[in-house]
Fold each of these.
Amino acid sequence: MAKQYKTLGEDIWKNRVETINAELFIFTYGSIVAQLVKDFEDYEQVNKQLEKMGYNIGVRLIEDFLSRSGWGRCTDFKETMEVISKIGFKMFLNIAPTVTNWSTDSKVCSLILDENPLNDFVELPLDTQHKLWYSNILCGVLRGALEMVQMQIEANFISCVLQGDDISEIRVQFIRHLQEELPNADD
Amino acid sequence: MILSLYIINKAGGLVYQRDFNEGLQRLSSNDYLILAGTFHSIHAITSRISPTGNSDGLDLLEADGFKLHCFQTVTGTKFLLVTDPSHHSVDGILRKIYNLYSDYVMKNPFYTPEMPIRVELFDQNLIRAVHTAL
């Protein structure tokens, strides 16, 4: 099964995705984060804003993911995470984070980002140590996208190479299935 | 022949309706809303009365004079396509319409999700896609 996700992800990346210049993308994201840091002067707030922005992206991006991949509903959270990594991340960022460190009840796991295009050329100021999660937008994207397919989750960075850690790790926790509830308006 | 398209949001509200042929009988705008809401409820019921477990609910409605195909996305949005009775497979065109929706509607930053769709680029591309599919 895992192989099938990988093949599909690569096929979509090669044939059904339009790419843009990576530098333009990196600069755009970088200037957003830098501007937020300037405006809020508080890294906690910046993390929150990035997460919110990601959420608003996620609720839209999920339609693009579904319509392009033609993927149906996953059977369980484990499959969901594999699909997110091998097809989702592949489609939008051309990376496939490793899904690992499952909790025994299969509700919590980690995405290890071996590479992360958002990080390219980035060096954080020293005083951000373990306060600013530069790529926190990704956590929001995950939450927004999964909420649209009736899954409530929480995602947080617990380590990041930009902070001097060995790996970048997003911890993802499944909370519950949403039953036909109305979605929240944009944050 | 494809006659018209309805898009129903996950709450059962009609967010889009378009006819593709001249001279089709129109309902009042209030009736369209009622129709969408009613269809939404019936769809929910049909997905629950399945005696064999999981069901995605009403998929095709055949009537004298027309067929109504329903495609529900994983996110809960419904695309209803009304065709003439001789029309068989609509999978291709429905998939194409979903693509156009995700491109021109959802990627438009000034479109608010779940609200009525008034997006010119979507209209244009939709009409083109339907006419080439004929």
Amino acid sequence: MKVVRVLPGHIARIIVSASCIGLLAAGCATAPPASDQAAVAAFSEANDPYEPFNRAMLDFNLALDKAILKPVAYVYKEGVPDPLQTNVTNFLANLRGPVIFANDLLQGEFDRAGNTLLRFAMNSTIGILGINDFAGEAGITGHTEDFGQTLATWDVDDGPYLVLPIFGPSNSRDGVGIVADHLIDPLSWLTPFEFQIGRTVGTAVDRRARNYDQLNDLEKNSLDFYAAIRSLYRQRRVDQIRNGAPASSTPIPGRISVVPQKTDSQQSKATTTKK
Amino acid sequence: MTGSPFKFLGALVFIVLAYTATAQAANPQDFVQNMGDKAFASLSEEGLSQDQRTERFRGLLNEAFDLPRIARFTLGRYWRTATDEEKTEFITLFEKFVIQAYSSRFQDMSGQKLNVINAREVSASQVLVLSEIEIPGKAPVKINWRVRSKDDAHKIVDVLVQGISMSVTQRDEFAAVIRKTGGKVDGLIKALRRKTGSN
């Protein structure tokens, strides 16, 4: 079992690092001088050596979004009746069933694989090709998985942050994951090319429409939209990899190294007096 | 006639006691549930102007959240390099920034409700309260609250929406702004002043 888990992880790590080499030419952020400790720490924490390239890519994606995706998503969101939008969301989510199932298996999560299989069977039939989340209404709620998450469970690091054209926020691990998911998806070999185009466009519009208000909000209220997206993407991925279990390793406000030592000793004093 | 000022005083004492009682709920779970109920009732009231809503939001925010602590956290390692004046101004601007960013998000909350599910201890003084917000016709949103308790008084120090920490997001964003403006807290303060429209 151990061998099975380590081997794909090892290969994947090589692929991940190989895929980054091509990007080296694309422009690297200059690391701050070693004398400036705070700056060096911030630089390594951001784990974003291709920041200039990534920022340009975000601008490119945003321009494309403003010109095409955002207006289309708006018309869809406002014009299409809500129940129909839910049908579309369900249909597209159901199409991901086989990929989620494969990744559940690759992660050794057999209970979750069973759940995915059951949902796919129920929704594809009684749910009429997945337009109704029949299983969800019966209390069998779904989850999502992808190969990026599978790699993470095989201990592959996320690698540097990457903003991919059209696909948006990612990192070298999850970028490999997108390609792998496409390859292991039976629907990508079994369905005609037209269907795949429709599916890709539909997925983009559906997702954009559902995040419409949140994205507007974030753009309006952030000081650095790029940095906010980067942080949100990372945290979301960590949460997905943990399958939503609350982390105890998240830094806790007030319990970090930058807090003056005084606070800590005051706290321990308070606890000892209580005892 | 002479009794009426005392009646008024009595009512005032009662109100103060009742108010303190909600702020010092028996455990963090009840505290979050009470705050949630209060926030939904108060902010979703019909016919409220945006200014009134913002004022109410400010009141709730200061009552329920340990804002200075959160502000200090979001400055991260730069808290140490900031001068006392910068720290004071940053905390003031941070409050304005949070109110500006979040108060408009509570415009349409009709039919929504917060349900506390359970809680788990994360340290001697902190508890993570797990809750869900019920939204009619949509999947519930998972919200976790990091609550710090001291002498039976509770304050929220972080909110996690679907696993994403608002404090960490803010800290990462502030760090990027500081880094872009030459590693000085002053650069962030200027950006916050512009964003919140404070001279």
Amino acid sequence: MSAIAATSTGPVDSATLTRVRTRPGFWTRLSRHRVALISLIFLVFMGLAALLTPYVSPYDPYAMSLGDGGQTPSLQHPLGTDKLGRDNLTRVFTGGRVSIAVALCAVAISSSLGTVLGLMAGFRGGWIDAIIMRLTDIFMAFPLFVLLIVLVSILGSSAKNVVLILGFFSWMGTARLVRGQVLAVMNEPYIEAATSTGAKADQLLLRHVLPNSFVPIVVASTLGVANAMLSEAALSFLGLGIQPPTPSWGNMLNTAQSLQVLVNEPWVWIGPGAAIACTVLAINFLGDGLRDALDPHLQR
Amino acid sequence: MTHYLVRRLLHAITILIGISVLVFIFVEVAPGDAIDSMLPPESMPTPEAKEAMRERLGLNDPAPVRYVRWLGRAVQGDLGYSLTSRKPVTDIIMVRLPKTLQLVGTAMVISVIVGVSTGIISAIRQYSWIDYLATFLSFFWLSIPGFFLGLMMIYLFAVKLGWFPVFGASTAGASNPILDRLHHLVLPATVLGLELAAALTRYTRASLLEVLKADYMRTARAKGLRERLVIVRHGLKNALIPIITVIAFRMPYLISGAVVIETVFQWPGLGLLTLNAANQKDYPVVLALALAVTLIVVISSFLADVAYSIVDPRIRLG
């Protein structure tokens, strides 16, 4: 990032060059943000656990054995077992695979869509801008969750549909952000310099505008993952998202809607609930730390 | 000011039209025969009667024509009939609407009181332990899923401690119905309000910190005003104006949250209705709800613009 910022500023601006050189590297700055670092470590752990569970855990997350149902936490089952006798800890991590994958895929779609639309709106201006921004306003006024319920009830609930719907209906924040960034960048003197040296529109866009929008996009995407995870969890909790037997952090709490499970088997729902809360919290902290660590304008 | 309000009203209308188009598209792609949701169930239509009806209603017309007609009916409050209960959708919604407004309204009051005051303290005591605690907690409330928080609250305060009822909006035959309703309202409204409170804390803190750096604050102090007056009269007055916009901006989130919270607490409002209708594939109800809920958002957003123009002299006089 620093390298890109330096080249795009042009060789004339020596002040920027020195600043870039003396600025500590990205990792140094991120590691100074202690909470963000702890969050990153936690997320790496969570990711690895989710990835490796099938190879490490002695239990099958799907195989039922009714005789072992409803066990309290013990050394064999640290989080107990659910009603169908499946090891809860294994299911929490398997559910993590699903929840994380869904959120990442959804954000990959929404961030790309938002970036493209934001670039188009900001760079082209005029009626293209007007249309895109009105669309953004309209979609933003729609409570996302109600939209999700409507679409899932029409299209049917499956992991694929949840990914697509989340992806195609949460690009608005990114689009606004990128557009604002483009408008700001287009006023910079180096854009004028580049234009006067005969840079074409696509060169401007790819070499100057896009790299300068990189930081807000990364930050927004990170926070987007957190939000996508929350939406998926809520949807699955209501029984409209990921369908059992596939576990996801949301649908594992679905059983807690019955008072019997809520009161008598708290370990069944506190585990996955805490997993979502901690993961989302860690992502939010990481996003906050990334904003500080990546921002080339912010000097420490 | 009139100029500003007219512009905002036009903006709100554009959004409403856009949303109505979107909902109309959903109506079109929703499975099932549109006729079923339009006829009063008593009439027991035969297939031939349906086809005649279709022709007479112009359901074979091109989509834009049908859209205008659908919109005309929707504006008059005719959103068709529920597929399951066979009642007019508007009636169903009107019965549930007050309950959701109660819940969302209370949540909003709670969140403004808690969020704004925490934000103020946080900004005035920047970098103190209380500021760090408030920042951490606001991150926490924004990260914890509403349904998980709701379940924990029920587990702790309703089941274990027994302070509040477990779910529902009222107890049949309660000796003091008003107190009983308030009692039922506390937990769900708190859970729903906490997320908005967290957002408000962060905005208030940032906004006040920005204002505290302004030149007029230094001037006010230089005049010899007491610190409390400086902060209240000069600082807060300016810092809190943008908060109105933030509250309006968060409305969609609040409504989204209400759907989940109403389910967790079995609160008989629009959210629970939406979920039940979605589970029963009762499309006319689901789509009407989507429209109603968005209408609430757009109206409150416009009201925020009005409030803003009253509070902010730069708009009022400009």
